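Severity: low
Component: inverse-folding endpoint
Summary: output formatting inconsistent between runs
Steps to reproduce: submit the following structure tokens with default settings.
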């Protein structure tokens, strides 16, 4: 029997259980007195539990205390008190091979989570864990103590029925556990893609369980990859009825009351310049040549007039955070009546806008500015191609009366570009691609996206407006959001220096290089055979840009202050900025608190990453589907990544990436050098590194894993030829 009289909580336990055992509090007290972890036998003895039933109940309670994070299990049957100082809180990241990592909230090094630990959680869950053992020399292993947040409420995947058991295999490769299907949901056929609502989260003893709430259709149906990505990444995609009710009275005509208090700039020959397939026009521009330079007008759709704080529409826009652009499909932040209609700066119709008017010197310096609400009338909807053709003197469709304005715009671009170079903004040359589809919505080809002078002109105009607005916000000290890009971390700079050294390059700027130091390196490597390699490593050393109310500047653009003002139709942070501007102009109180802006910044940074991940998944699926028809064929490609398990190769002219696994490279044993991104053969001395040109053959394609496997046929880079040449000379020498 338990020592009832000594347990202060015995009465409470006796009311709950017919045969009570010592309370959790009393067990913790006895372990604290022991001063070190105790075995099950030791705990039972000190509690005075002798019979089978009470020992069995104690064992269940101890395991429950481990599950709830009150105790830590040492080995199979030893228990100890958890010291809060030893616990790590963070977010779980799943890996396609079944293990995972805990990313700590405090920014410390992540913990490895074994496949056994990952059985109780999903990717994205938040947990408390403790370090239990070193996993590798630079990483420790973690044991999950408590699940703090379950962030996976539904799963999208493929339904199977085997041995009278239904289950779903998740589509997301970072979730590697099958989910049992409970009765009561919709009836799917084996092989169909379904959405599963999780009704029981996983534990160490049982699999997760869910019920089918939606049947998406056949696995290979056209457009299925987008439907899957939307649900796999939990993208809001249907507007709630409450939102539809709020906007049902709107038409594409600007309300008469909206004109009041606005500057009338309808006679100003503003034009929009976008891609051929654009439907939502955020921005319009006009440049007038002045005595001392230029007057640049950047007019941006005034979404804030229609989307008011506290409305259902506003709540939904914040939830989405941004529009998501898939190949041939868009999930908009705002309903179509706004995004493609009432807010879009269409030609020949009145539209509400916020204007950033900048007076710029002939040297490209913004001397003064004015920001105000206005009503505009776009004089033309132009495309990048039309404008570029006009500037190149080729046949075009730009109206004659607008040509002088476009020429002035191009002249201004030249001086703004000069300022950009002077301040040392970093300008990476990256190749974007576009997927072309056939009539059956299958990939016909993947082609490079052309970025002409018209793209660059509009980009410089938007950068100038964003910086000007950011300076205005900072000067007036209101709470808003900035687009910040922190300087590279010291350890990344050190790794970069070590990498550049063997290439005869030195990173200037000491321990804290400035953007101009990066720009100097990038300018100096143009035209080199290893340009792609060096630029890739430079890019990987940098941080990701985020939204925050704390201005720390934008390192990549070399701005002391920067924000996003120019795309409120598709980005919620821009809408916040517009509201803040109006509050300043109307001399009203600060709209937002710092806490609200911190929360909004974190959320919008997350939705941006979420959109990128979802889009990447869709593109990778489409590329895998495309490459299924090319298994066995040979291609020339460039090494785009080097790891300890192989090399990633991007195919030239096809723009598809795949893996050559080291296990398939049987001609030699290859050693990985993480500092220089190389694999080196022990016997041959062959070096494989970033940007080397190689020939590969397509070995296999897995749609389920989004994976393309290549086999290395031969190395084609100049470096390899040099190695062969040296080897040949050595062989001749040996023969002599």
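Observed output (run 2 of 3):
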């Amino acid at each position: 029997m338990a020592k009832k009289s000594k347990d202060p909580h015995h009465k409470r336990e006796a009311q709950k259980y017919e045969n009570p055992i010592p309370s959790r509090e009393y067990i913790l007290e006895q372990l604290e007195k022991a001063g070190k972890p105790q075995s099950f036998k030791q705990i039972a003895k000190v509690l005075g539990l002798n019979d089978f039933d009470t020992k069995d109940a104690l064992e269940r309670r101890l395991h429950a205390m481990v599950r709830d994070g009150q105790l830590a299990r040492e080995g199979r049957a030893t228990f100890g008190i958890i010291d809060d100082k030893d616990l790590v809180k963070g977010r779980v990241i799943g890996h396609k091979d079944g293990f995972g990592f805990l990313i700590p909230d405090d920014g410390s090094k992540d913990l490895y989570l074994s496949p056994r630990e990952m059985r109780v959680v999903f990717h994205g869950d938040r947990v408390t864990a403790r370090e239990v053992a070193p996993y590798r020399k630079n990483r420790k292993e973690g044991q999950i103590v408590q699940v703090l947040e379950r962030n996976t409420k539904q799963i999208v995947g493929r339904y199977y029925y085997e041995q009278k058991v239904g289950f779903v295999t998740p589509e997301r490769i970072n979730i590697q556990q099958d989910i049992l299907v409970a009765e009561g949901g919709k009836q799917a056929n084996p092989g169909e893609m379904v959405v599963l609502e999780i009704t029981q989260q996983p534990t160490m003893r049982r699999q997760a369980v869910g019920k089918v709430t939606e049947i998406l259709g056949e696995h290979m149906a056209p457009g299925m990859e987008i439907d899957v990505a939307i649900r796999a990444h939990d993208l809001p995609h249907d507007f709630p009825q409450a939102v539809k009710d709020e906007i049902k009275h709107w038409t594409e005509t600007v309300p008469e009351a909206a004109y009041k208090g606005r500057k009338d700039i309808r006679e100003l020959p503003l034009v929009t310049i976008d891609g051929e397939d654009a439907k939502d026009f955020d921005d319009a521009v006009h440049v007038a040549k002045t005595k001392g330079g230029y007057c640049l007008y950047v007019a941006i759709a005034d979404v804030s007039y229609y989307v008011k704080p506290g409305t259902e529409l506003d709540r939904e826009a914040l939830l989405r955070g941004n529009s998501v652009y898939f190949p041939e499909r868009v999930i908009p932040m705002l309903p179509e009546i706004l995004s493609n209609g009432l807010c879009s700066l269409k030609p020949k119709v009145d539209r509400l806008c916020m204007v950033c008017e900048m007076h710029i010197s002939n040297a490209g310096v913004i001397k003064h500015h004015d920001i105000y609400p206005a009503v505009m009338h776009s004089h033309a909807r132009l495309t990048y191609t039309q404008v570029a053709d006009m500037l190149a003197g080729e046949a075009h469709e730009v109206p004659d009366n607008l040509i002088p304005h476009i020429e002035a715009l191009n002249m201004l671009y030249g001086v703004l570009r000069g300022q950009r170079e002077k301040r040392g903004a970093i300008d990476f040359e990256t190749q974007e691609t576009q997927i072309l589809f056939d009539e059956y919505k299958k990939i016909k080809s993947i082609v490079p996206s052309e970025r002409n002078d018209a793209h660059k002109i509009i980009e410089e105009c938007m950068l100038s407006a964003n910086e000007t607005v950011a300076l205005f916000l900072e000067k007036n000290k209101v709470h808003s959001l900035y687009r910040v890009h922190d300087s590279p971390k010291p350890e990344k700079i050190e790794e970069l220096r070590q990498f550049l050294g063997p290439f005869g390059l030195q990173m200037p700027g000491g321990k804290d290089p400035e953007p101009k130091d990066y720009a100097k390196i990038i300018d100096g490597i143009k035209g080199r055979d290893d340009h792609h390699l060096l630029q890739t490593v430079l890019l990987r050393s940098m941080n990701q840009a985020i939204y925050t109310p704390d201005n720390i500047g934008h390192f990549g653009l070399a701005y002391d202050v920067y924000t996003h003002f120019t795309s409120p139709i598709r980005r919620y942070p821009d809408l916040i900025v517009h509201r803040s501007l109006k509050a300043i102009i109307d001399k009203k109180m600060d709209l937002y608190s710092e806490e609200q802006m911190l929360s909004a910044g974190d959320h919008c940074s997350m939705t941006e990453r979420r959109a990128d991940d979802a889009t990447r998944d869709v593109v990778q699926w489409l590329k895998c589907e495309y490459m299924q028809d090319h298994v066995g064929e040979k291609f020339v490609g460039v090494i785009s990544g080097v790891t300890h398990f192989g090399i990633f190769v991007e195919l030239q002219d096809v723009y598809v990436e795949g893996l050559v696994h080291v296990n398939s490279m049987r001609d030699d044993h290859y050693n990985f050098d993480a500092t220089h991104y190389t694999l080196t053969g022990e016997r041959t001395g062959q070096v494989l590194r970033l940007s080397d040109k190689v020939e590969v053959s397509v070995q296999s394609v897995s749609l389920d894993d989004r994976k393309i496997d290549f086999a290395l046929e031969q190395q084609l880079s100049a470096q390899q030829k040099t190695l062969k040449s040296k080897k040949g000379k050595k062989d001749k020498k040996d023969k002599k």
